[in-house]
Specification:
Length: 142
């Protein structure tokens, strides 16, 4: 197992599309984990969610989050980011990021469709500012 450099883990996160597993804190302290589609804006992880989702409600109350992205084929790699989430309800910003996320996961030909669908009233843009990053490649190699 070898620690990834920042360049390596950025390439890992932006390369082949993988879902992130986002963990937020419920009001009673229990974790809530859901898959998300995401892109990067510099060092920040960006995704969209509905304003009435459990994750949005959790983030509005407690912005501490963690996201993990992994490769499920040998020799296995993963990146886990702990950080603080910020929410924006700006429609233009939401359209921009929803379109970029749609292009990444559904292809350029469907990007605009997904951007419009995921930036309507009630949709939010969430940015995670990292406070800690764990990134390892070749987990099965010793």
């Amino acid at each position: 197992m070898k620690e990834m450099t920042k360049e390596e883990y950025t390439e890992f996160l932006l390369g082949e599309t993988k879902t992130g597993k986002l963990a937020t804190v419920r009001d009673d302290g229990r974790p809530h984990v859901v898959p998300i589609w995401f892109v990067l804006d510099g060092d920040k992880v960006v995704f969209n969610t509905a304003d009435n989702s459990v994750k949005a409600n959790n983030i509005q109350r407690d912005p501490r989050v963690s996201i993990s992205v992994d490769d499920q084929t040998p020799p296995y790699s993963f990146v886990t980011i702990e950080g603080t989430a910020e929410i924006s309800d700006d429609r233009g910003e939401c359209l921009h990021w929803a379109t970029r996320i749609g292009a990444r996961y559904m292809g350029e030909e469907r990007a605009e469709e997904f951007g419009k669908r995921n930036s309507t009233k009630g949709e939010l843009t969430v940015r995670i500012s990292p406070t800690k990053v764990l990134a390892y490649k070749n987990v099965t190699d010793y």
